[in-house]
Amino acid sequence: MFKKATKLLSTMVIVAGTVVGNFSPTLALAEGVVKAGDREGMTNTVKVKDDSLADCKRILEGQAAFPVQAGETEPVDLVVVEDASGSFSDNFPHVRQAIDEVVQGLSDQDRVMLASYRGGKQFIFPDGKVKINSADYDMNVRVDTQLTHDKSQFVSGFGDVRTYGGTPTASGLKLALDTYNQTHGDLTNRKTYFLLVTDGVANTRLDGYLHKTNTNDSINEYPDPRHPFQVSVEYSNDYQGAAAEVLALNQEITNQGYEMINAYWESVESLSSVNSYFDKYKTEVGPFVKQELQQGSSTPEDFITSQSIDDFTTQLKQIVKDRLAQSTPATASLTIANQFDIQSATATDDAGNDVPVQINGQTISATSTEGYVGNITIHYEVKENTAIDAATLVSSGTMNQGTIAKEFPEATIPKNDNAHACDVTPEDPTITKDIEGQDHLDLTNRDQEFKWNVKTAFGNETSTWTQASMVDDINKVLDITDVKVTDENGKDVTANGTVTQENNKVTFEMNKQADSYDYLSGHTYTMTITTKIKTDATDEELAPYIEQGGIPNQADLNFGNEGDVLHSNKPTVTPPAPTPEDPKKPEPKQPLKPKKPLTPTNHQAPTNPVNFGKSASKGIHLPMTNTTVNPLYMIAGLIVLIVAISFGITKNKKRKN
Questions:
Q1: Where, by residue number, does the polypeptide cross the bilayer (predicted)?
Q2: What is the secondary structure of 365-415 as a DSSP string?
Q3: Average model confidence (pLDDT) for the chain?
Q4: Fewer Cβ neighbours under 10 Å: the N or C end of the chain?
């Protein structure tokens, strides 16, 4: 960029490179392995920060430093948009000299372009009426020097610029942008700066008119009653609308990836005169215009202003030199070996200022801020994720700045002498089940509650699991009255998961913590399910279990990856035998009465003579039957017998006749 500056900075780089190259040389040689390649100014060291962790893995800290050199700059295009309005006439030579000095210091690879603007005499009022100020000049916006590598052509073109008239700033920016876009060609590895230099408040708009806000349709105004003959054509100009157009063009330039520098020489005396904005400039116009110009700059630092022409030109030269002489940013990438996990990474410059860092997988990268020259140090911490049984590479990488490419020395670390002190034998998970602490339980009554205990020891490899659940499908003849999960200390850990019950299937689905089941390692959970026989269970349903040794039950542990399952043993519970029904008692027999002698007939007196007296109501005892018959039945039967005999005799007589 700047020839003299480049030479000076190159000298400074040699000194800086020497300092960086000697950075902690003993440590670098002891811990870094140097390979062939450009490593000047590059260092990379690593050491143990903490080897007292419970898992026997060490924390390491490293530093990788790289230099950012001056002189390695991108080619630039400088597009100067110069205010050539009449108010700049007296001080225009100072500004031209400052810019010429800047341009002549550019390198051969840089290009320059010049556009200027002035004039405007058509005024338009709020009611649409247009008037022409015959004392002013037509708007004149032009490209004085097309984009070129020839700096002398730029200087010559600048010398031909003439100042007069109004301030059509937006039109000047638009012409410069359009012309540059039509002529710039390939911009690969080239940076573009637009430099607006102005001393006035924009007034002539993109449509070619100076917009007025007064409603009396008068171009001439007399803002100071004390000087009734002092005329101003600017006092009621719509300065806000004109400034908005300038801001929009500034933003269009930056949106296209170009840098925007706004330089405003503020001639307060002139702008506050009765012939200009008078009493409005210091309170309204000036603050607003400066705010808009600063907002339109690429950064707040890309806006300069001064009320002194000497200070203004000094600032102007400095800001352009600073921006155009900025070094190409340097980017360093440090790759961490897969045996280590990145814990943190930061970067600082020589002044201790933070430099942005990115971590992408196993790569740490840092990029210098634009224009920075000096050293940048990446600070990183990593942790071993495996046993380091020999000296091992920790990090290596590269730095690139423009055409410069360098390598970091490889940083290695000695073996971890305690790498296997924490080794543990892998323990697989197990699941067992009991009923009230036994393999078998005989119930004494049907209302008795009893507990199934599903005990799971998770082992020590749960960190790799993708699932963890305990499942117990309880027999349908049992009712579930309670489910609880406790750890090996009896602490209720039901909250570490979710218990669900679908019909008689109980599931305890364990949650991950920090996206892992590692917290289960070394622990034992017991899921206790309290049950009892259903009140509506029938003897027929229970009979097979009584006969076959009890109701069996088995639980499962789903662990590891999908499909991995362990089955518990099968404890049993035997329901009580049903209570037999009491046999029916036989009805008591009536005791037999002693037999009485029969009352004799013709040949023998009857054993039990018929008594038709008072005892008839008590029944007549029939001989040889041991029964008693009601006497009324006896009389009725006798009558029937007599009638039958009489009927038979009568019928027999009729036959004989």
A1: 632-650
A2: EEEPPTT--EEEEEEEEEEE-S---S-EEEEEEEEEETTEEEEEEEEEE--
A3: 86
A4: C
Cβ contact 504:475 at 8 Å: yes
**Nearest by Cα to 137 from 120, 152, 150:** 120
State residue 636 phi and psi, 5-degree precision. Answer: -60, -40
CB atoms within 10 A of CB 186: 6
Residue 231 dihedral angles phi and psi, to the nearest 5°:
-100, 145
The closest alpha carbon to 197, from 225, 167, 217, belongs to 167
**Do 523 and 460 contact (CB within 8 A), yes or no?**
no
Tens-digit pLDDT profile for residues 303-335:
999 989 899 889 988 888 888 766 678 999 999
Q: What is the DSSP string of 430-445?
A: EEEEEETTBSEEE-SS
Give percent of the chain with pLDDT exceeding 90. Answer: 65
For 104-227, where are the E strands, in sequence order?
111-118, 122-124, 130-132, 140-148, 191-198, 209-211
CA angle 415, 421, 425 (to 5 degrees): 125
Within a 13 Å sphere around the CA of 393, how many CA atoms are in the beta-carbon half?
A: 13
pLDDT at 592: 57
354 has which bridge partners?
A: 348
Pairing, β 76-83 against β 111-118: parallel
Are 531 and 450 in contact, with CB atoms under 8 Å apart?
yes
Q: What is the DSSP letter of 283?
A: I
CA distance readout (Å), 154 to 103, 317, 337, 579: 8, 16, 55, 120
- Please provide residue 103's backbone torsions phi and psi, each rounded to the nearest 5 degrees: -65, -40
Separation of alpha carbons 177 and 252, rounded Å: 9
Q: What is the DSSP string of 484-505?
A: EEE-TTS-B-GGGEEEEEETTE
How many CB atoms are closer than 10 A to CB 99? Answer: 24
Q: Residue 111's beta-bridge partner residues?
A: 77
The rounded distance, in Å, linking the Cα atoms of 126 and 420 is 88
Structure tokens at 546: 């009584």
Cα four-point dihedral sign 279, 284, 288, 290: positive
